[in-house]
Amino acid sequence: MHVKEKLSSFHIALLIYMIQLDVTAFAVPRLVAENFGTNGWLGLIVLSGIVLLNLLLYRIVYRLGKGASVFELAEASVPKPLLVPLYVLLALFWVALGAMIGKHFILIFRLISFQTTNPMLIFVLFCFMVYALLTKTIYGISKASTVFFFLSIWMLVLIVYFWSDWKLLRFTNFWFQGAENGGIVHNWAEVYAVFVGYELCMFLFPFTDAKSRLFRGVFIGHLTFTFVLLVTTWVAFGFFSFEQLKMLQYPLISMLEYIELPFINRVENLVFTFFLFSNLMSTVMFCFAGLTTLRRVFPRARRKLLEASVVCAAYGIGWIPQILRQSMLLLRFMFYTEMGLAFVIPVLLIPLAWRYRTKKGGDATS
Fold it and tell me: Domain segments of the chain: what residues?
């Protein structure tokens, strides 16, 4: 009898890391400086802790539901016809969010390397890569993310090039001073958006078992991402002055422009290309979330037809923002919405999972 493959905690960890490392990473030091002020990197640790608390809610859902998918948990208590409109709305939103992440990256990429190229020509190639991965199983996607992780993680080594100009004095002795007065909730939400993506772990429930140790992988992936964010922010805070950080749109790109190598003219072009992989995985996984949701609405849809429809929808949505500022505003709004969903969904699912467990009986999955 054929045994269905299950995800391992190793692949899960790298997948969660790659989902979270999207286009927002370029602006993290500025976002921290603007919203938290001096030594604002400490706020990243606090926000990472909030993410861990949110993940504990998903873990409760997973254990109470004994590994059942979120759709099975919902449909066990609510008639499916009533859920269909919600499924469609959520699917469209996740596909749109994936499209916005990809398009925003393309607009920045165009600004740096292809100023005269129509961004939609680059985006269509990006969508072809999304389609190629979506037609694979989640196991194929997770293994691709593992390859992409090792193709991009080497960039951390580049921090040695900033050592000679890195000064601890630039951190100052002040804590959380000089932040923009946008309101506490707004300021914290602006930076929290950087972590968006961890909530997609709920779509991995059916592809794991007790041996997978799903949430060990999710926690490790998130903490690895937090570490990378902290390192990037520490380097930026010691390399630029506080006021410079607040003025630079994308401090990470400005830092890369500083690096000079004898065999490469513009290092940022090479490095930026490797960021394509992490942004690709973010787009793919949000489209995967939309695709999985649509499969509950159209269970008899022909193979690859639904995938093609999702990618075509993503490409169509990509036409909406034509300039970087417009894309930034749309992406910010969608991240705020996703942040709300990340907290609301497990809160709604916990009582449904409890009822599901009561019906099924037995012990919860570990």
Answer: 9-171+182-357
